[in-house]
């Protein structure tokens, strides 16, 4: 049985990936300061966890997964940085290092970190490099690569840096990841969508009007596109620019992606979404901002599934230990 610890755990995508693989596992704990995300995790996985911070935390998992806050690395954010001395939300990634240090002689066999491509930018990469060096000091061999959800069956152009650190000298082989053909976007979209999702905000309508103009003539269409074969990176809100893209209803009407569509595009099942709706039901006449945020902050489950499979194939997680159901 695999013991997993989820830091900055959100809606629990790392655990969801193990469930999808039918891997016998135990979530020895989950750490998340966002109370709404904790409630979502509890309803999905039948837990009674309370919100808590990663600061000062200590436990002993086989796999440690942390998707630390990305806002201060993101190209769409304020670019405040995430170095050890920056004291930003993104610098909380170094709390993971403290947690591992506090474990003493015993350490997780695998540490997986996911974040935005912005961590590789010239003005941000110092923080990323510091993280890699400190992981090496702790006895890990690091491998990282930018992975796109489109290569794992999901029609969402979501590129993220995945860093896999293995205790000892083994190096994670990204070339062994099983890529899958992108499924048609139609498989993820609802039919007979409520008028609630039709775009009516004047600022958004102006950007839609600008779609008809040459791109060189306007600034309004810079971050707004009509979804054809795939959507763009799903964020925590869809009623703003940039967003994941809009759906064309007719020549004059467009709509946002729904919460259910967003959940599917992040690798969650319709049953998962139904459970979350029991905790965060839709309010009459309003879109569900809580669920948009939960899904937008998550990791794409399908990519994690591919990474776990390689760890099993490499013997980092043994077949006997995994105990496929």
UniProtKB/TrEMBL annotation:
Could you tell me which species this protein originates from? Listeria booriae
Share an example GO biological-process annotation for this protein. Answer: DNA restriction-modification system
GO MF terms listed in the record are: DNA (cytosine-5-)-methyltransferase activity
Catalytic activity, EC? 2.1.1.37
EC main class here is transferase
SUPFAM superfamilies in the cross-refs: S-adenosyl-L-methionine-dependent methyltransferases (SSF53335)
Q: Which residues form the active site?
A: 70
Q: Does the keyword Nucleus apply?
A: no
Name one matching Pfam family: DNA_methylase
> Do the record's keywords include S-adenosyl-L-methionine?
yes
Q: Which family does it belong to?
A: Belongs to the class I-like SAM-binding methyltransferase superfamily. C5-methyltransferase family.
Q: Which UniProt keywords apply?
A: Methyltransferase, Restriction system, S-adenosyl-L-methionine, Transferase
The record lists the catalysed reaction(s) as: a 2'-deoxycytidine in DNA + S-adenosyl-L-methionine = a 5-methyl-2'-deoxycytidine in DNA + S-adenosyl-L-homocysteine + H(+)
What is the protein name stated in its UniProt record? Cytosine-specific methyltransferase
Question: InterPro entries from the xrefs?
Answer: C5-MTase, C5_DNA_meth_AS, C5_MeTfrase, C5_meth_CS, SAM-dependent_MTases_sf
